[in-house]
Amino acid sequence: MASARPVGAITRGTTNPNRLRRCDRWLVATQRHRLTAPLGAPLVVDLGYGASPVTAVELRDRLRAVRPDVRVVGVEINPARVRAAQHLQDDTLSFRIGGFELPVDGKVDVVRAFNVLRQYDESEVESSWSLVQQRLSPTGIFVDGTCDEVGRLATWVTLDRRSPLSLTFSWRLGGLDTPSVIAERLPKALIHRNVPGEPIHEFVRTFDRAWATAAPHGSFGARQRFLAAVDTVRADGWPVLHGRSRHRLGELSVEWSAVAPNRR
User: Fold this and answer.
1) Whole-angstrom Cα distance, residue 9 to residue 11?
2) How far is 145 from 115, CA to CA, in rounded Å?
């Protein structure tokens, strides 16, 4: 499927090797069923991969652990970035000019877009989400995320064809002072909602308090302190997803309905 004019705008394109490893590993660990469901080779799109195609290469290599036949398409609105990646193409990896309309044939099983919508206006988020959702397979997902320059702090929203499903936070626990530092890396849909009265603000404050309360566990290491904080948040009634194996990595997912923005 091709569009005469890509939908979107050229972004800064900053990227680094391993920057998106936290999300890639989450995909492999928690979304395996979405990659194994297709009878044919799963189709995955790295949307807005940036000035370097390295994240598309890494995504393909990591997903091969689940499906060796996976096909990854790197989509960029900047023609120069697509031309620069052509030498990497093979049967499992290709690069195309495009935007949120997704210039690929057929339905897509996974779309990953990191640090793309961060550079847009909040008012453009829902329409961009909707364009991608229309292209998803019945079991497909769209992952819209943000991370810091080296991937030590990351957050992402996961959506299916109908609606957002969850919000995931991922911290590098070594040297972590206050969990709320991750608020600077919230997805565009939430970053301006981290204010009193909004659910995401309450969640960030709640986790900071839980982290502070869990300080005695720090004598056993940051991981034990983090696990204790997650237990407190869950006990407070927040809909925490996944289990200990994910939390031990400094990762915490909650149902989207618990943190979704208030309607204005």
Assistant:
1) 6
2) 6
CA dihedral 188, 190, 195, 197 (to 10 degrees): 150
53 and 128 in contact (C-beta within 8 Å)? no
Alpha helix ranges (H) inside 17-158: 21-30, 32-36, 54-63, 79-85, 125-133
Whether this prediction's pTM lies above 0.85 is answered by yes
Torsion of CA 71, 246, 136, 14, to 10 degrees: -70
pLDDT in tens, 115-147: 999 889 999 999 999 999 999 999 999 999 999
Q: What is the pLDDT of residues 221-242, one digit of tens each?
A: 999 999 999 999 999 999 999 9
Greatest CA separation for the chain: 59
C-alpha–C-alpha distance, residues 101 and 249, integer Å: 34
Instruction: Please state, as a whole number, how many other Cβ atoms lie within 10 Å of the Cβ of residue 25.
Output: 16
158: closest CA among 148, 146, 149, 167?
Answer: 167
Handedness of CA 198, 204, 206, 208 (dihedral sign): negative
Q: Give the integer Cα–Cα distance in Å for 172 and 94.
A: 31
Domains of the chain: 21-162 (3.40.50.150), 179-258 (no CATH)
